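Recap quiz, item 2
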Amino acid sequence: MSVTFRDVKADLLRKITLGELAPGSNVPNEIDLAADYGCARATVNRAMRELVDDGFIERRRKAGTRVRMVPVRSARFSIPLVREEIESQGVEYGYSLVARTVTKPPDWLAVQLSLAANESVLHLICMHYADGEPYQHEDRWISLLVNPNAESTDFTVIGPNEWLVKVIPFSNAEISFHAVQADSELARHLGCKVGDALFQTERSTWWKGDAITFVRLTHRPMHRITTQY
Amino acid sequence: MSVTFRDVKADLLRKITLGELAPGSNVPNEIDLAADYGCARATVNRAMRELVDDGFIERRRKAGTRVRMVPVRSARFSIPLVREEIESQGVEYGYSLVARTVTKPPDWLAVQLSLAANESVLHLICMHYADGEPYQHEDRWISLLVNPNAESTDFTVIGPNEWLVKVIPFSNAEISFHAVQADSELARHLGCKVGDALFQTERSTWWKGDAITFVRLTHRPMHRITTQY
DNA sequence: CAGTGGTCTAGACCACCAT
DNA sequence: TGGTGGTCTAGACCACTGC
């Protein structure tokens, strides 16, 4: 069996963790490593690219490859559709549209999405349920400039998220997570007490530079998101 | 100039977003695509591997490649050291050790890390400051079985996170985010009101299957984490 | 300028697994 | 069992950038 890129990656990682390749030190170049491991340069290259991706090393042409001083930690979270998140738990999904208005964007939204103050946006408030219990509150704003069809769509049967995924399958987004206290309206919708700590997700989405939508998702109390690395 | 894997990736992505390659449909195999694009099979392969990584397609040997029904969204968050997070904002970092005890793990911790009930753990409470203002509360548990040196380490000068990064540069971890209400102790340390909604990060860390540490980081009010994709 | 990584090629063998 | 993706090879050219 020949030497695989996994072998090379594992061995380099071992040398890094054992200190044989110290933080800040230089890693031999690809040609030398290929000779050492008895494999092709492309094999070493793939191993090294994965180590870059995992945050263990840095590479620059001519300067070579160095072990990072502090490994860069990053974790990846999947962003599921609410419906799938709920149904994957073997629970019945429910949805309802709470409010729908066409309006001008408030200042904070215009800033966040770089909208003109006089363009129209569709503002939706929706609720998602798991087995009939409140699961997630959705505060959604959709640009009607980019997406005029939204105005004639019946959001009482399909959630805006699922609709948008069909219409705009690919997009760029900015996501942020934080905590808020439940105000009276959130408390009423989510069936919790005013002041309860709630986990909130905000997502702004663009397509080819144009703002499509902003959404603020408020999860029921105790909600958490988890991942491994 | 020859056809690059970026060209191939961009073109496939274009076909996916325009519906030319519909969700659920089959993508031609690598050999055909290589012929179509006039490039080597390896070039197509790299483009496709990145599309898998980005969540747009699925691949299985023999079955071939299909466009995912719903693109899998995922976002990557970097997990900085508190010190670097604060200093990168151009602000002075401060640290203090609040409490230190050696004890047996409480039940929830033993379950979370798969610890024996009778082994010893080091329990630390620390505070991190930005420009003298409370920034983050750290509730840290370290297994003394795997890491006996922790007991003799002076955590009044170095934070446990920075120490652990040096001692155990590589590890597996599980991270979760959620929201909590400030209890009286958190409120006192973070200088906020009891009941305030706080963003909390929990991380369990293993090295080669052995539990190393569990930490609960509570951020000051209004803290948020953000990323793009 | 010269060393390093970034990438492409053309060919090969193999593992997996749907049929 | 045959088609498909997974990976390795040996060689090549090029882009970047530290010296």
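Chain A has a mean pLDDT of 93.
The first strand of chain A starts at residue 26 and ends at 27.
End of item.
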